[in-house]
Design goal:
mainly alpha, globular
Length: 266
């Protein structure tokens, strides 16, 4: 059943994201071609320079918009479970974790797509600004473990951001009115609490580690120590993901349709 939910979520979000991404990509290509043209005719045709500047600004804003849509499309789908769509989706013989997992996987993949899309459009964007073009460099084989560790860390951070928004929506679902406002306020309150806990952890870490910083300065400069540090940070992020998942699933169970709980939905 999870695969069916994933297929449904992927199609529903793709109908929104792909047309926007395609339009911004076309705009980016036009802006890039016009930028190369301006490099040779900018002094004789100033109105072309002005038009290129407008297109460049619109392209950059469009790239940010696509990245935002890729992230919030899944969050918006999750929020809809609190409304009329919940009557249909929550009546299916599906567990709460399957609803969360389908939207989380879809949201992480679309957000990752947004980052790659932003990088692709950024390549065209900077190639229009550089007269000699924009070149890409590939990592060496010895850097592959670092890139894999950072990639897993990025996935964990994206999942944490998604679950953060899901938890805010799930908390707002316990109220019958002003759910959107409560979701927004809860999102920032949870973020503030998370920042305080992170700051507290940094302070405790600095107090414990700083006295012996001279002794470990040689160790932390090695490649294996850097990789180990990234793995430790990734493990901590995964633990936070697990906590957010557990809290979201616990709140989500109240919205599983049953004869005594249908009044929870508007």
């Amino acid at each position: 059943m999870l695969t069916k939910l994933l297929k449904y979520e992927w199609k529903a979000t793709g109908r929104v994201i792909l047309p926007i991404a395609g339009g911004v990509l076309v705009l980016n290509l036009v802006s890039s071609l016009l930028g190369h043209f301006v490099n040779n005719t900018g002094h004789s045709m100033p109105w072309v320079v002005f038009l290129t500047a407008l297109l460049t600004l619109a392209t950059f804003l469009g790239m940010l918009a696509v990245l935002a849509v890729c992230f919030f499309a899944s969050v918006q789908r999750y929020y809809k479970l609190l409304g009329e769509q919940g009557y249909l989706m929550l009546s299916l013989p599906v567990h709460a974790w399957q609803h969360i997992a389908a939207k989380l996987i879809c949201g992480v993949l679309w957000t990752l797509f947004g980052f790659f899309y932003f990088g692709l459009c950024g390549t065209f964007f900077f190639s229009a600004l550089e007269a000699d073009g924009f070149s890409l460099s590939f990592p060496s084989p010895k850097d592959i473990p670092f890139f894999l560790a950072f990639f897993i860390l990025i996935l964990a951070l994206i999942a944490m951001a998604q679950l953060h928004a899901y938890l805010a929506c799930a908390f707002a679902g316990r109220f019958t009115q002003q759910r959107l406002l409560i979701s927004i306020v809860s999102y920032f309150v949870l973020g503030f609490i998370g920042q305080l806990l992170f700051l507290l952890g940094v302070i405790l870490f600095a107090v414990k580690v700083y006295p012996s910083l001279d002794d470990i300065s040689i160790f932390i400069s090695t490649d294996s120590a850097i990789l180990s540090s990234v793995c430790v940070v990734g493990l901590l992020v995964l633990l936070v993901d697990a906590l957010l998942w557990a809290l979201t699933q616990w709140l989500k169970r109240d919205f599983q349709l049953s004869p005594g709980k249908r009044h929870l939905l508007p």
